[in-house]
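Board work, copied verbatim: Carbamoyl phosphate synthase small chain
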Amino acid sequence: MTNYTKLPAILLLADGTVFYGKAAGKIGTTTGEICFNTGMTGYQEIFTDPSYFGQIMVTTNAHIGNYGIHKDEIESGSIKIAGLVCKNYNIIYSRKEATESIQDYFQNDNLVAIADIDTRALVRHIRDKGAMNAIISSEITDLEELKQKLAEVPSMEGLELSSKVSTSEPYFYGNPEASLKVAALDLGIKKNILRSFENRDIYVQVFPAKTTFAEMEKFSPDGYFISNGPGDPSVMPYAVETIKEILAVDKPLFGICLGHQLLAEANGIGTMKMFNGHRGLNHPVKNIIKNHCEVTSQNHGFGVIPDEVRNSDKVEITHVNLNDKSIEGIRVKGKKAFSVQYHPESSPGPHDSRYLFDDFVEVMKGELAW
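↓ predict structure ↓
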């Protein structure tokens, strides 16, 4: 087990706020947009979620690393967060099934982190001031030098990141003899989404982010899936065009998170950068079609513009966030297309929303229509 050095480290926010802590993970410097996740468990799934690419994660749970690292609890092939900020950084872990400590994991994947931070004070600050860029360093102590480096970091608004985390080549997932086939556009897809399809007897071909509709259609799928992912949906015309072509032939389509935002864009509805976004495992959402509440897992910093959704003659609202009334789900009128802003695959998180995969199956089989 690699030693935890406890060398000094600095966290500097774009508004000039400074926090001093101890180095964790790799000794070095990292930058990104700082955000916080309110989940009480599932840190490894969070670290490897491609939707967090380019972001520094603050965990509100006081203990990180306490149950170790397990190879089966990853959502992609590597750590995707840009850095970690936590309070208690636990090298010694309790779970027998774990294969390594968080320190070994971070060092092997070159992740820079900072611990011994008052994360409650930090989260309250971000909550009030909004999302902003930040820098962590365990090798630079000069604040002026850190400020110069931080000033060079671009805003998340306007960044196209999905092509950076997408697969470079198409691949298959599941049983080739399955009863249904789905073509998935990988904008930062999570492994548990693919498992959720496989568990419903669906064979998936996963395509790179910039794949055309014509290329995906060669798979002769029963339906199309538009995945979650990082970055600003308003600068992804390639994906919007693909969705428009799917809608034009009226094939079943299901979108999650970024896929939800892009479905809105394809219907003339704009998207926006949120003040803080939603990240955690306890966000209440009302399904206004079925008149029930779901506790959902969420991770997004962009959202659809509510007034534009309400005024649209192309879509109808299916789900609403009960905290801030943001739009959490839509379906396209006269089409077999629907999407949600949250994560029904719930890894980590509650399983309240997994019925959406069943709804997609029913749409592909022609057993569910609206």
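The chain has two domains: 8-151, 162-365.
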